[in-house]
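hi support,

uploading two proteins for the ticket. first:
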Amino acid sequence: MSIDIETKGENMRKRTAGVVAAILSASLALSGCGLLPFQQDVPFQKSESKDTETKNTEKTEQQPDEEADADTTQDTDTAEDTQQDTDESEERTDAEEDTQEESPLEQASLMAAQYDYDRAIELLKSQSDYDSNTDMQNAVSEYENIRATCTEYPLEQITHVFFHTLIKDPSKAFDGESDSDGYNQYMTTIDEFNKIIQSMYDKGYVMVSPHDMAIVNEDGTMSRGSIMLPPGKIPFVLSQDDVSYYHYMDGDGFASKLVVDENGEVKNEYIEDDGSVSTGDYDMVPLIDTFVKEHPDFSYHGRKGILAMTGYNGVLGYRTDGAYKTGENLQDDQKKFLEEHPDFDFDQEVKEATAVADAMKAEGWEFASHTWGHKNVAERSLEDLQTDDAEWQSYVAPILGKTDMIIFAFGADIGSWEGYTADNAKYEFYKSQGYRYYCNVDSSQYFVQITDDYFRQGRRNLDGYRMYYNPEMLSDLFDVSEVWDSSRPTPVPEM
């Protein structure tokens, strides 16, 4: 394989059904930290859910109805939040019962494998027979010795990597049709992903969360976290964008949804050529879950990754946006879906999506807003973003749960690299809605800001474009020549 390592410009073209959309203007100036808003978020799909002027007109024309809907939605949300709390409580009880089936030594062993030595030691010492149980005493001694070797990792040197939906069948994704170039640029195949994760594991990388890096205190201020790891371990943050299995991806070699299987595990469904449905590890969530079962030391205190979610096509493969229920303001692909599914049950979709999300959270996964309509926050007005976030809170939060994280679409941001200030109206709005953790896309290895008010981190795209044009920028993580999928067409199209 020959890979061109010449650094190319990072102006990204956006394509929707062959129509080139406006390119995001540079909202962040380049600095010594290397912050670069690399607009890298599936631009070849319908880039945003609706044209702004059209949507605003619809809002104006339908305002009375929408106000009534909002009241209804608020009541519904309250009920759903209550039910969700109940469901989560039941899940915790079930999880505790499952845990109780394991011996204290087994529980402590897993805690220690995931670097939670304090909990492991506390658990064993709390056992009534600890003073007479030499196995427990020996385990505590071992964990104390390992804990003594741990050092605090520099938070500003923690990288954040992300993927889009993984390609299960490259022959369908790279079939030369209209979306093939975009898939080649922005997606990663399952084979590449597995090799990347294995390489990172072999190098000592360990998944952590932004919530480990920065902590919101009871008084609302934010303080620095502390990540303690043995020598040779390197923390990183993992995320994935747009895990909605959009309509445009149908038949292109991607999974169709996430499900909870008969064993209570989160897996993917994949629709075969003959219409039959296969269940397996076909995207990041089940692949990581399986990997951590085999390598528990890849996770810090049970952490997994973050899914950055929109809502206009629903979530996790389920059609849960209100438009599918009301039949109003539908896009063509949504109309087609409903026509092809005359027995569509909106409430059942919401129920099943919620069950999947709850199962994921129980396994250490987190969710972030990606804006409801995949909005470019740098270009959109404050009013547009307020309307958009209201949609997210109405149709996504009741399923995935409330979140204090927002991962901006298109690699955009609401401020310069220097940081957010009190005169930034967009920042003040998002903060008022409970968002404290903010992520953009950054071409540099590290970009971390921790202030008294917010946490901010840049992310690195691990996809066809970056691997082809800038393999040297990924060498700390893996060797591109060793993970590259030979089925990927070359050259990868420039942006």
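and the second one:
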Amino acid sequence: MKKLLIFILLVHISLNYAQAENGEIVSSNDTCINIDLYLSKLAAEKNFSGGLLIVKDGRKIFSKGYGWANKEMKIPFSSNTLASMGSITKAFTASAIMKLVEERKVSVNDNLKKYFPDVPVDKSGITIHQLLTHSSGFSEFLENDGGDYERVETTEYLKRAFEQPLAFNPGEKAIYTNVGMSILAIIVEKVSGMDYEEYLKKALFDPIGVRRISYCYPELQTDTIAHGYNNGTDWGTHQSHFKNAGGGPYWNLKGNGGLEASLNDMYTWVNAISEAKVLSESTLQTMFKRHIVEEGMDGNYYFGYGCNISKSRRNTEMIDNGGSNGIYYARLIRLPEEGVVFYMVTNEKSANTNKVLPNVTQLYFQGKIVQDAFEMQSGFESPISEKIFSIIKANDKVDLEDTLLKAKITVNDDMELYEVGRRFVDNGNADAAFCLFKYFTEKYPELVVGWNELGEVYELKKNNPEAIKCYRTALALRPENPRALNNLKRIGLKN
């Protein structure tokens, strides 16, 4: 009898799960099998590389990697591969702050003056609540931002942030900001007396058994860290770029982006959140509350604490985090009414989460791909970016400033322009990219990134003299800017 029961149990398991290589799981229901077939086909035909995790009612029904973590060494992407989650990092920063709130060491009503006595008057009243909800008035990036790997220590970062004028009055509206999240991470360090990563590990990860979510610097010998690939070209890893910059992570990235995790550790994390093992139920309700509408998103998107909240296509509640550095892409979607969590991370630019995950969710909920995201021109986070993309695509010689004015399109922040320009660069459309980044540098002349991008577009157009002018403008704004220096060196010039 006992043997019969064991046999029945084994049959049941085999009917519900198909074991992939490296101990990965694909539930053997038709939906998961179809998703697996689809992703396998993408890996073979479109160089899709990354991993997908699906959790249903707390149970892992899908966890599998595709493509390569390291092409050169022939290491496949697996459920144990560490890959950058981009701005999903903001959810961990918010969780760290709320853990300190639960410990009564911090209040969301505290203002910056409490933690930084020398903060200027215009920023002294900014609250932790406003930092958490992107309503502080800080811009998305600092002026003259030297990029993710610029060596910016705490004192210098705060100096720049506090000297930079606010984009709007605190609490007036909400516009996405990396700066605000990095300041929150600095507060975590200040209050806890620990490094940001150390606090995450001790307060959030160790108690629930998360093995490794970090910047992974230096590299762990026992782990595989996914290399990023730009349409097949090896971009390297965060760790290699940190090393070239002399260390890291630094504050242009730390706290707001770039943490790395595996599918397996993300499964542990999302379940611990769902089961209120990390933070209390009341704290989670506060974090996932619709606090303030996101500016420029047609009134359909709200900021919680470290997350976006909107409605799915099925009109159910969706708690969303996403992020990218243009190479790695990641998306975490919680659908509490439907009991489903999706986490996807990719390390190949050509087939990223913006294109793949919408198709996966269609397969999951509708059984087929109704609208193929690869055939859509969008994938933009902002409707404004979509509109600008369409305008330039139709006429890459258009006077963009005049056209936007006549169309009553207001650009809310530089990223709405930047991601459009990068799309044209990635597609090899130099004329369209030039139209965008020429306007970008006119609208945001103080941003180093625009001059670097415009310079590279000039190079695409075989106009090195103008490219050199752009790189030297970037260096005038931010001396020792590594990107501008490297570009000039590549051309064969010194700054």
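thanks. also noticed: Residues 1-21 have pLDDT under 50 and may be disordered.
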